[in-house]
Amino acid sequence: MSSLAALNERFGIPGHVAFSAGPSALVIIEVDNALGNARILLQGAQVVHWAPTAAKPVIWTSEAAKYTPGKSLRGGVPVCWPWFGPHATNAEFPAHGFARTRDWDVVSTRQLASGATELVLRLPMVDSDRVMWPEVTSLEFRVTVGDTLEMLMANRNHGTNPVTIGQALHTYFAVSDVRQCRISGLENVDYVDKVDARKTKRQQGAVAISSEVDRVYVNTAGDCVIDDPGWQRRIRISKRGSAATVVWNPWEEKAARFGDMSDNGYLSMVCVESANAEQDVVTLAPNEEHQMWVRYQLESV
After folding, report:
1. Strands (E), 189-288
2. pLDDT reported for residue 220
3. Residue 170 is among the residues annotated as catalytic for this protein
4. CA 200 → CA 12, 67, 95, 203, 229, distances in Å?
5. Which of 118, 140, 273, 278 is catalytic?
6. Ordered domains of the chain (ranges, CATH)
7. What average pLDDT values come out for the chain (301 residues) when binned by 10 residues?
8. Catalytic residue list contains 187
9. What are the angstrom distances between the C-alpha of 35 and each of 49, 144, 214?
10. Catalytic residue among 170, 278, 288, 290
């Protein structure tokens, strides 16, 4: 990994993009422009903060989060790749893949005419990863910070055989009180209920959360909206190239076991994850690329 001085010299943009040392010497990319601001860990290419200018943060990170080399941070937007959940055949491989714990390379940074800031990062493949993932693939991640937050995962198969990939942007959204929030856009969609023995169920009405929730909604490509009456706002989640949506909140008992979530922290967040998971994984033919794109946008009530 390049030194901070080298990163700032090559990729820093005065007044807009700066690289600094965070806790445990993890590299943080600070992004600031007239439209919004964000912080991104180079480890995992993990967005840990985003807010439009003069707005409350939209991305939630635990107050008790542990900044540890080689371990994913609690909160933000962990990048799950090249599988989602446990590995299909080897339980010793890390859940949600290895992309979220690796140091990424910076490809480019630039200011856009819109006033937003774009960063492109690439996941380097190392020998220890190839033991788990022998496929010849690449992953680039584009983050655009402004009054919206856009992220794009570009997966390419450089090999000679088809490759099946599971992925998700495991986004933690900040809310005033999850018990008062409702998530629309998943009405009448089937989901796998991982809290209830993986039974397949159908969503009736908007999603309300009053206990542990871990659901993979399948065959759904539409927008979701988090309605937060306490903060008088809605968070619109738009996506392309994603056929599944995951909704997750650990609730009190499980959150207490984490060790990196403060008391009642689970009430101030909800994960709504754009994904390709369960039967909605992506199979890439040789030389084929698949892009999964999301945009988060605040709307007033």
Report:
1. 190-193, 199-202, 213-218, 224-228, 233-240, 244-249, 269-276, 282-284
2. 98
3. yes
4. 48, 36, 22, 10, 30
5. 273
6. 4-177+216-221+238-300 (2.70.98.10)
7. 90 98 96 98 98 97 95 96 94 94 97 98 91 95 98 97 98 98 98 98 98 98 97 98 98 94 95 97 98 96 83
8. no
9. 14, 11, 33
10. 170
